[in-house]
Amino acid sequence: MKLKVTLDHNGFIPDQYAKFAPDNYRYDGMPTVNFPVIITDIPQNAQSLSVSLIDYDAVPVGGFPWIHWLAANLPVTNIPEHLKAHQLKNVIYGTNSTWHDVKMNQAPENPEINQAYIGPMPPDKTHLYTLRVCALDTNLPLQNGFFLNDLRTQSAAHILASATLELPARSH
């Protein structure tokens, strides 16, 4: 399996999907429109895809990897820009790291933010974001709001193929 994400002319995730997104690519101030992902060489017997986007460069800044995007039971095809706006029937969305603010009573729970793509917003320097797409032999028995550990354990015995890309996003 192979992934392709079109980067800007400097080799970064394009601004509209990250820290410098325009207002129409934001929800409540957060960049919530995902970049499209072209996927090739998907196994023929795949029944669904899952996606994750994690910032491991966030560890020195916040103490843990920052989860930007989790989704499962995607159709076996390319991932379109603004996946959530397509309202695809079986797609379910996992909880990203903005959940930390909800748990700390610093923000209200809001699935449009907490269970959505949240674009990269590196605070200190260029960060690399790990995009992983898995082809699965089934739809996963998860519910909206699932966590990364749920995705990992539920998909472990069902991964037919996976691919990762390291995608840089600029901080300024």
Global outline: globular
Give Rg in angstroms: 15 Å
Q: Helices and strands: which structural class?
A: alpha+beta
Number of helices: 4
Strand order of the biggest β-sheet: 7-6-5-8-9
User: How is the main sheet built?
Assistant: 5 strands, antiparallel
Low-confidence stretches: none
The helix content is: 10-25%
Beta-strand residue percentage = 25-35%
Total beta strands: 9
Secondary-structure element sequence?
EEEEEHEEHHEHE
* Overall pLDDT score: 95
N-to-C CA distance: 33 Å
Commentary on this structure:
With 172 residues, the protein is α+β, with helices and mostly antiparallel strands. It is 12% helix and 29% strand. The termini are far apart.
Task: Present the secondary structure layout.
Layout: E1 2-4, E2 26-27, E3 30-31, E4 38-40, E5 48-55, H1 59-62, E6 66-74, E7 92-93, H2 99-103, H3 111-114, E8 127-136, H4 148-155, E9 159-169
Antiparallel strand pairs: 1-4, 2-3, 5-6, 5-8, 6-7, 8-9
Which characteristics define this entry?
172 residues; alpha+beta; 5-stranded antiparallel β-sheet; two-stranded antiparallel sheet; 12% helix
What's the short story on this structure?
With 172 residues, the chain is of the alpha+beta class.
